[in-house]
Structure formats: structure tokens, C-alpha cells
């Protein structure tokens, strides 16, 4: 039988998260205090995060147990299915085998609840009453809003202004779950007011929205900050994806030669790839891993590997990452979840070590791949996920050219049901490609902080 879907039972769900820090051949450069330039300690992060998350952020333990309360919520949608894209393979005429892990089955429609649930759980354990966060496309905001509803915590979301306008139904979903949603930059914070004073028509950025959310958390002892990507503990929580995929591929009698993931901050890419990269670094199995980002926000392919702020208002610690500069304001492309000036330090470190590759895809090529995938497989990807689809199709066509039968795995990190305006614009020919000008990147990078 030509199996299409590989499904695990609830008792096969991972009970621990995988921490890639345990297998790194070179340790990750530490975050630095922006004032002293010295490595930060737990006390520096305590105003923003629950202590359990801070411990996970700095841990080098390979496996970290998932609390039973978190597992109970995970079981609402996990384990997620692994699909063999047989119809897409046939349409492409490729000898390659294409598998995709589908995270769009979660209540929020993406992979983001994998970290929203534990972040809300640990906050509740510590007596936190409110969580402040940012969101680009709204997938993270809706996931944290869901987690806040489940654990009885208030949630305030600063949504990048261009996405606030582009995605009203994602905003409505957050509000249905009980969150308060504000367009960023806003007049509710000093960071937002400063941006609006200089740029009254600012369309916003994730860096600006992060500044607003961090400011709210830092000013209120009852509020903590929650981040949907980039940080070590966030990437850690997503590794349930790759661990499940390993078991499912064993069921299929297969193992990936190539893993493809879309990258903005790095969370879904890490979720699918880190368990496999860990096996590679331990000398168990080889795999080629490709991170695909938008050409309009090319932190991995055109950014600099350097210490930088994670936000535009310079309220966060300095982390070493591939960055376009914290003042970088990306264009309003529809892949809102990938519009971030930096890349997760762990992903950046792996690229620097040569463990992964990076490529960039134009907006029109990403949407063309998403439409082709939807017509073959019947699932409409989110604009962010279209970058992974485009990368996987490119690898499959390369196999067609070479005649090699390689196994390709990618993460379909979310559905596009709240992104229909983007597809409508694409079908109407209203979308454009955008290559970020080299001189503007150079200007943003010129403002990088000086670190001794």
C-alpha cells in the first residue's frame, strides 16, 4: 500500500525536549549585558522570564522533561501527522521522496503552541498574572492567547502594524481567546511613542513590537515577557516536531538526506531540524540541512554574524546572531512571521559552524510554490511555510535533473486560512518581489553595538 499519512498514538508523543546545546562542538557565545559588556546571569533575566525558562535558556542538559500538565495540553493535537507528498512528487516528475510534517493541525493553526503552552505553564507556576508579547503574522500571538486562556493568564499582544491591517481574522482569533491586541508601534509605550515621533507612518517591525512588549513587562512586576522564537528555550520546546518525525520516518523505513525549513527567527526550522542535526553531530547519521528565508529580510544570507540587540529600542541583552541591524525595518511582505532583523543565536551558530546551509526566496516564487503545493496536496500553506515548500520543490527538481532518489523532509509549519488576502493579492498580480538594497543593509549594520 502506498501510505500517505504516518500517525503516532498519544503515548508515542515525546516526553522530553531535545537540547542541541549538549551536542555542540563549540559552545554558543553567551548573551552580554548591554551596559557592562559582560555575560548576563539569571538575575538579569528574572524581570522578564520565569526562572524555569531561564534555567532552560542556559542549560546544556541533552533532554529536558516536559511537565505532565504541558503534555496534557499537547495531546489536544500532538503527535502531528507526517505526510508523504506523493501527488506533489508525481506532478514534479521527481525521483525524490518528499515528506512534510504538518503543524497546522494545532488549535492556533501553526507550530507556535508548542512553546506558548510551556511558557504560560511556567508563568502560572510562578504566579504571573499577565504576559506581554509581540507578533508578526499573528500565529505566535494567537498561540499565546490560546495558552493564556487555558492557564488563566491575561495576554497583551503588540502586533506589527502592517500585519494588524493585513490579517484582521488572525487578530479576531486572538481577541476570541481573550487577548488584548494593539497595533505596533503604539502610543502605549515609550518605545512606540519614540518611533511614531520620528516615523508617524511607520508600518512597524518585530524589533519594534518586541521593544514595546519588553517595556511593559519590565515596568510591571506582575507581567512577564514571552517570545515566540529566537531564544534557546523557545527552540528547545519546538523539538517535539523533529523527534516525532524521526519516529514516523522509522515507520516509513526512511531517513532524510535533506531537511528544509523556512526561517525568520528560527523556531520551526529548529523544531524539525535540531534532533536530526544532533544525531549528525554525534556521528550517528548524516543529513544536509537548508534554511530558507525571504529575500526581503535576508538575515542569514546577507546579514552579519555579530552581537546585536534583539529589539529596536535596545532594551534586550546583546546576543551573537546573524543580523541585519536592530534598526532594520523590513518591507511589508505577507510572510509576517519571517520579518525579523536577526536569526536565533543557535541557528546562527550552526551556520557559522558549517552544520547548515542558507538560501533566500523571492515572495512571488514562494507563493507560486504554495499554490502548486495546495493544488497537489490539498493543504494551503501559510505564507511563511511557502518558503519551505519552495525550498523543498527546488531540491526535488535538482534530484530530477541529477536522477538521484533522495529523501526530502520539510516542516509545513502552519496553514494559510487566515492569509487569504495575501493569496487574493497574489492571484490578482498585486504582489511584487523585493530585493533589499545593499546600501540600506549597510546603513543598518553600521549601527551595530561595539563589543570588545
From TrEMBL:
Q: Where is the Tryptophan synthase beta chain-like PALP domain?
A: 76-414
Task: Please list the residues that carry the modification N6-(pyridoxal phosphate)lysine.
Answer: 112
**Enzyme nomenclature, EC number:** 4.2.1.20
Which keywords appear in this protein's UniProt record, sorted alphabetically?
Answer: Amino-acid biosynthesis, Aromatic amino acid biosynthesis, Lyase, Pyridoxal phosphate, Tryptophan biosynthesis
For this chain, one GO molecular function annotation is:
tryptophan synthase activity
Give the SUPFAM superfamilies listed for this entry: Tryptophan synthase beta subunit-like PLP-dependent enzymes
Pathway given in the UniProt record: Amino-acid biosynthesis; L-tryptophan biosynthesis; L-tryptophan from chorismate: step 5/5
Per its UniProt record, the required cofactor names are:
pyridoxal 5'-phosphate
Give me the Gene Ontology terms describing cellular component: cytoplasm
Which CDD domains does the record cross-reference, listed alphabetically?
A: Trp-synth_B
The subunit field of the Swiss-Prot or TrEMBL record says: Tetramer of two alpha and two beta chains.
User: What NCBIfam families does the entry give?
Assistant: PRK12391.1, trpB_rel
Protein family per UniProt: Belongs to the TrpB family.
Task: Give the protein's recorded name.
Answer: Tryptophan synthase beta chain
- The source organism is Kouleothrix aurantiaca
- Name the lineage: Bacteria, Bacillati, Chloroflexota, Chloroflexia, Chloroflexales
